[in-house]
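Researcher: Sequence of Glycerophosphodiester phosphodiesterase family protein follows. Predict its structure.
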Amino acid sequence: MKRFKRTIKRLFMVLFVLVAFMYLNNSSLLTKVRDEPPLLLAHRGLAQTFPMEGITGDTCTAERIYEPEHPYLENTIPSMEAAFIAGADIVELDIKPTKDGQFAVFHDWTLDCRTDAKGMVKDYSLAELKKMDIGYGYTADNGKTYPFRGKGIGLMPSLDEVLNYFPEESFLIHIKSADPAEGIQLAEYLLKLPKQRLNQLTVYGDDKPIRSLKKQLPSLKVMSMETLKSCLLPYLGIGWIGVMPSACENTQLHIPEKYAPLLWGFPTKFLNRMDSVNTRVILVAGNGGWSEGFDNKQDLERLSPNYSGGIWTNRIDVIAPIIKE
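Model: Prediction complete. Tokens:
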């Protein structure tokens, strides 16, 4: 009986030491203080927003926008410029291949929802796309009025135009399809850029194009569901002892707000660990569905007071002034 009691006592001691180690090794109490403001990522620049309820992959979001509070249309140079002026550190944009081998900056699978044209972006040359009115389909009152009709002609830019217009700014480029050939095409384009410019760019998208892109540009920061899982699943297993999985190195993580507290050391120690392996963390609102962002003061109140990683927002004009305060 005495031996049994001694064994139980030792087990409790070992368990106590283990729990104490796990707590102290992942506590913000014993880590470098982070006093810099959060990094602000403006989704599609400064864009028209809409209610997220009931959205599916086929929803035409231009037909359900809120009453416009500003004159900008997503994925255009004016909207990106407005976002940077407002305080964005990074602007996210969407790309689609054109018929003549360029990349147009445009979000939807088809042109039908937002523009006065039909079909796919890939069915048109860039010159043809420039003639379209990308503000044609926007309405806030179920089609009674269309406040942006006639104002979006010529506003669909190419990726080349965007990067030339903003030579010093950082971008998150979204490959919209699951086609690995688009990853190869983008890699061939990016390989022509100086290394310094590549350091300002990150690419995310489906597993297949990101995988093919990464093969040709292994040093480029990328993000896909595959790269996210390859980092975070091992981290959940061994991160509590401070060991960083190799898959977490030199990448970008888009982490839904709902799951972030499950990560060892979140927020401060987790962010410091990711900084140590040159990885950027972007927090997405909610469960990560449909590009939900931190878009108002109430959203920001859910953040930890010492959170200084990246924040995904659809309303950089609202969020940046609050952060600056």
